[in-house]
Amino acid sequence: MVISIDDHGNFIDGVIGALATIPSIILVVAASTLPEGLERGQFVVRGCAINLAVLAIAFVLRVAYVWRYSNALKIVAPEPSYSGIA
Q: Quick one: which of 11, 24, 9 has its CA closest to 54?
């Protein structure tokens, strides 16, 4: 299977969406195997916290990537200088 990706932004957004969805599903399935009680609640809370931390890191990396790309464009293509003879 070959995946052609012309726009890397759409790929990264899809990965972030998968990071938000798949661990939550796995967490629900894993928690359903545990007996009722405090351990099950702690497992769910810790799992959600880890999932939230991974998503926060993914969003920070995404923002850093976009910010670095926009700064690189500013360096490569500076504002035109209009000083001169009018």
A: 24
Measure the CA–CA gap between 12 and 81, rounded to whole angstroms: 36
Tens digits of residue pLDDT in 19-37: 888 888 888 898 888 888 8
Q: Are 6 and 34 in contact (CB under 8 A)?
A: no
Q: Which pTM does this prediction carry?
A: 0.61
Let me know if residue 47 belongs to a domain.
Answer: yes
Helices (H), the chain: 8-32, 38-76
Q: How many CB atoms lie within 10 A of CB 12?
A: 16
Query: What is the Cα–Cα distance from 51 to 17, expressed in whole angstroms?
Result: 12
Please report whether residue 82 resides in a domain.
Answer: no
* Boundaries of domain holding 71: 13-76
Q: How many domains does the chain have?
A: 1
